[in-house]
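Risk register update: the risk of archive-format incompatibility is retired. Evidence:
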Amino acid sequence: MYNFLSRKRMMYLILFACLFILVYFLYLIRKPLLELFYPVFIAFFLTYLANPLVNFFEEKYKSRTAAIIIVYVLAIAVIAGILLFLVPELVRSVKDLSRTIPVYFERYQLIFYEFVIRYKHSDLPARIKELLDENIAYLEKVLTDSLQIGVEAITGAFSFFVNLILGAVISFYILKDMDLLKKTVISLIPRKARKWTFALARDIDVVLSGFIRGQLLVAAILSILTALGLLLLRVRYALLLGVIVGMMDVIPYFGPILGIVPAIVIAFIDRPVSAVWVIVLYFIIQQLEGAVISPRIVGSRVGLHPVIIILAVMAGGKFFGLAGLLLAVPIAGIIKVLVHRIIDSIVS
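Archived output:
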């Protein structure tokens, strides 16, 4: 029993050491790697989403190329319908927001400096004033950086759409030659290892399907709920802000917090009381997501402890930026499945 446990512990140590070396190597080449493979990541993501529909239409029309074209046409039609409804409002919001960002920034600075002047002439105890002095500069930097991050996210949308188009083209060819690619991959796997490899692929598919498809649906629901709530609160740019919240929600734990910051800032500058109601709205929606929406839609298919998810997201964001934040959880889930399969095969 002792030898078995020692052997298993040693296997874990070796695997984690190899994983650390791999992550460090990827970190060293992260910038060119991300620039090169970003469209490829999008392509695999689109392929994973579209493949079930392509298989369905292929069975019906007996042609995979026709099935892919049907899926692409349906996707374009759905996106076009959504855009026809959303784009005019989004364009107006973005244009208006781009014109008013300098105004918002100046107004924010005035509010901030008024607060500084008032507290310095107040009767607060010396120790509290000292603590405020220490943190005011940091607070101003955090708020300013938040606004700058929001502006950079908007201006970076064009690059994303270019990569999205490239990813869609690559995805088309992957879907078209799916059977050939599968046969090629299978031919490269030794016969003795095929059963183990297929079992591993099924486990990974469960993790990815549980996270990717579920997370997208959760993000869409949160976008709608947030936009409706902000409309009821008469917060400007409600539709745009709702979309931002949904997009940021795909980043676990930190994304929803970052996504609601622009809404709070805009509401506070217009009417400070509205910011309080936005925070209340955000709290209610997050409780609803945590207690009802995510457990029912995503569930526990990823099979990762919350602490592991937080550490994975922090490491992904630190080493690989936005791509690391988005891919941290599914990659961590895949690594967990892979490690367990390797350990089980070694010790058995």
